[in-house]
Design goal:
By secondary structure, the chain is of the alpha+beta class. The protein is built from 2 helices and 9 strands, in the order βββββββββαα. The strands form 2 sheets. The chain has a 5-stranded antiparallel sheet with strand order 1-9-8-7-6, with no helix packed on it. The structure holds zinc ion.
């Protein structure tokens, strides 16, 4: 069922549950990943790593969006859609050549989108802490010398 503007809600979870519901985006900051069941209704799990080379999660306090689009080329349904502000926006299906070309250009597009709008990827808190800890060690080494 490809309904435009289909609603998808979200849940922040520590770990992604084994049984996941349709039309819910499960977000684990700790594991830097988001998971949902394919929006077409085929019930296939779609895992989107949250990483500079993967997807960016945009959480504005009320809704979530994923950037770039989700292209389930490896699934039978070959669904292609955007998750924008808790809504499924269907995109056209492509042939192999278009998929390759888009994957290339999308990397560039993704970066420029982030720059223009100031959209920030939500970073796991732990990472910051780890980095600080690392910086502290380096600083103390310097002091000793
Ligand atoms: Zn599907």
């Amino acid at each position: 069922m490809k309904k435009d503007n289909q609603h998808i809600s979200f849940e922040f979870v520590e770990t992604i549950p084994r049984q996941i519901e349709e039309n819910v985006l499960y977000i684990s900051i700790e594991f830097e990943t988001a998971t949902h069941l394919c929006a077409c209704g085929c019930k296939e799990k779609v895992v989107t790593p949250l990483a500079p080379s993967g997807w960016s999660l945009i959480y504005n306090g009320t809704t979530v969006s994923l950037n770039p689009s989700i292209g389930n080329w490896s699934l039978k349904c070959q669904s292609h859609y955007f998750i924008k502000k808790n809504k499924i926006i269907w995109a056209s299906q492509w042939n192999d050549e278009q998929i390759k070309a888009t994957r290339k250009s999308r990397n560039i597009e993704r970066d420029t989108t982030i720059d223009k709008t100031g959209i920030q990827k939500i970073k796991p808190k732990e990472k910051h802490q780890k980095n600080n800890w690392f910086v502290n060690i380096i600083m103390s080494l310097f002091k000793r010398d």
